[in-house]
Amino acid sequence: MKTLQKTLLALATGSLLTVSAQAAIGYGNGYTGQPYAGVKVGQFDLDENGADDPTAYGVYGGYNFDPNFGMEVEYVGSDDADYYNGDIDAKTYGAYGTYRYAFPNTGLYAKGKLGLAKTEVEGNYLDENSDRNTISRDDTSIAGGVGLGYAVNPDFSVEAEYDMLGSDADLMTVGAQLKF
């Protein structure tokens, strides 16, 4: 990983940990924060000619500092998808600030997130001469997403999300999360 990418990820992680520690103190309004963890499944949309879109599987966790603002980290990987006479897969790691807007008296909420994501795409294939070729892309960039969720009860929610992971990939997922 390049030095700039390492520095950006270290700064983002340090900032999130600092904010998490401050939020644990409480804001004096009775809300002291709420951690959560979840799983998601969906599909990558890769900007690679000749590639099928791989199925995505992921885990994520976060912390709501108050009912609206929070932070979230995630890992999403994929299975192998067809790519010419070979296969391709993707994975992404992300750290985001989040905002949720709860629609009154419905259990529905809208979610937005913005942060950094590292996306890796790898594939191999045979060309017309039966020579084996590989592709490998590694991109760290500003990423974001929008989603819609439903709180089944105070501790369990389901969400649908669309994430933009920079110039190489997008991600569409549905998932479930448990609040602690």
UniProtKB/TrEMBL annotation:
Organism name: Psychrobacter namhaensis
Superkingdom to which the source organism belongs: Bacteria
UniProt cross-references to InterPro entries, sorted A to Z: Beta-barrel_OMP, OMP/PagP_B-barrel
Gene3D superfamilies named among the record's database cross-references: 2.40.160.20
Name of the protein in its database record: Porin family protein
Outer membrane protein beta-barrel domain location: 10-164
Keywords recorded for this protein, A-Z: Signal
Lineage: Bacteria, Pseudomonadati, Pseudomonadota, Gammaproteobacteria, Moraxellales
Signal peptide range in chain numbering: 1-23
